[in-house]
Amino acid sequence: MLKLLFLTHRYAGIALGILMVIWCLSGFIMMYKSYPELSETESLSLLPPLTLDNCCAIPDSTSLSETTYQEFDLQMLGSIPVLHLRTVDDMLLTMDLRHSRVFHSVQEMFAQNLAAGFASSRHYPEATLLGTIHNDQWTVYGAYNPHRPLYHFAANDDAGTQWYQSSRTGEIIQHTTREQRVWGYLGAVLHWLYPTILREKVQLWSQVVIWLTVIGIFLTATGLYFGLRQFKTRKSGRKSPYRGLSLWHHYAGLLFGLVTFTWVLSGLFSMQPGALMEGEGAQSEAQLLRGGDITWATISALLPRLAALPMTENTVRIEGRVLQGHLALYRVENDATRMRFDAGYLQAKPLPQKELLSLAMLLSPKGRPVATDMITAGDGYYYDHHELVRLPAYRVIANDGKNTRYYLDPVSGEILDKIDTNDKWYRWLHYGLHRGDFTGFLRSRPVWDIFMWILMLGTTAVCITGTCMGFRRLGRSFS
Predict the structure, then answer these.
(1) Which residues of the chain register pLDDT less than 50?
(2) Residue 392: is the preceding peptide bond cis (ω within 30°)?
(3) Of 51, 109, 435, 458, which cross-links 256 as Cys (Cβ 3.0–4.6 Å)?
(4) Sign of CA dihedral 125, 158, 193, 282
């Protein structure tokens, strides 16, 4: 039985060894270079300044009046003010407020005009349409589905800039440079097994990654077993029966085998097989905090008055959101700075502390929340590490029997994040084990870099020596 297990370990290593090495080496890159994706601030920085000249020509439509909305925002599409309406059914409508029409698609000529204007504003040489695509390596995420097909443009600059425009709204939804794409391939694409031909088939991709990871777990677990079993004092005084490369693999496995195992295991958790550790999400709570919807009559009456809203030269968007049944407006600048305004008087009206406490009470069905406070730095569940979070945030630990955590935007009251029981498990068993971000101290630089480099160099040594041994053995079998 042991011999069969050992042979299975050996041939599993031959089959998966190169992939394990790739996972290790691409992990080094992902420590510093992430998959290209526009952050909120980056998306806002691409928008032109909002101007309400010649606005707003409002369509009179029965269908608009028969629908209710959860939010809206006003921004520029080139030189045209447009209104985005999100219905209570989570459908997106886009309205041209210069020509008083709802549009459902952006034609190619218009898209090229928008791209030319964007290229001029960014001082790019020119905008060249590379094609109309459904997806490619940098737009394979399901989040882009409402915008497909996509217009793919190149700036023809030294940085190799490319961007993608939605054929639905005309917005720029992805923006990359050559450097980002190169590091993205060498890092995230290899690490996540993310080539488009596989990733676009979501179920197939998920199953491939899960089963390869399961094999990796078996490989590392059996390696640990054999490594510990073979580590004992012999008559010669030696602790290991191996020599040469096998000796290096044995001792590297003893020192870093457990780390290798936990990294592969936590990689499996990232796929959440069988919805393991999948959080509930905060959709129901977001609806609860809204406390109502927005009618088209309210929006159409408000639009002509927006010119009186105080704006700065950096204003790129006006948002309308409902909180506890009351509509408020938010002036958004290109650095993601937001200011709240009363929708009736168009005067600045920051969200008072007592209203934040009222929201916390709504989120605690069993009485007063366990704790509420304003945090200006990350905590154990809401923090900056590869992904930016919005701070300060109003933290609520709900009195719901599970101490569910909510993080609210103190400007708007919207839920920025929710951490339920499954999310807590996922945070420690995936993010903690896979990225080593257990504490704020470990996340600080250069502590995290040193900590991770030591562990990853050890893990890489385990995988490289094991792979070389496997292929050396395979070579002997065929000689």
Answers:
(1) none
(2) yes
(3) 458
(4) negative
Nearest to 301 by CA among 64, 49, 53: 64
Q: Where are the alpha helices (DSSP H) in 348-446?
A: 353-362, 421-426, 433-435, 440-443
Q: What is the average pLDDT score of the chain?
A: 92
**Do 298 and 250 fall into the same domain?**
no
Strands 162-166 and 150-154: antiparallel
Name the nearest CA neighbour of 285 among 341, 324, 342. 324
d(CA 216, CA 210): 10
Same-domain status, 47 and 172: yes
Q: 192 and 22 in contact (C-beta within 8 Å)? A: no
Residue 96 is assigned to a structural domain of this protein: yes
Q: What is the pLDDT of residues 203-228, one digit of tens each?
A: 999 999 999 999 999 999 999 998 88
Domain span holding position 271: 2-34+198-277+446-478
User: Are residues 203 and 301 part of one domain?
Assistant: no
Please state the pTM of the whole predicted model: 0.91
Q: Which two tokens stand for residue 257?
A: 């085998």
Number of domains comprising the chain: 2
Quick one: tokens of 93? Answer: 């409508």
- In whole angstroms, give the CA distance from residue 209 to residue 194: 10
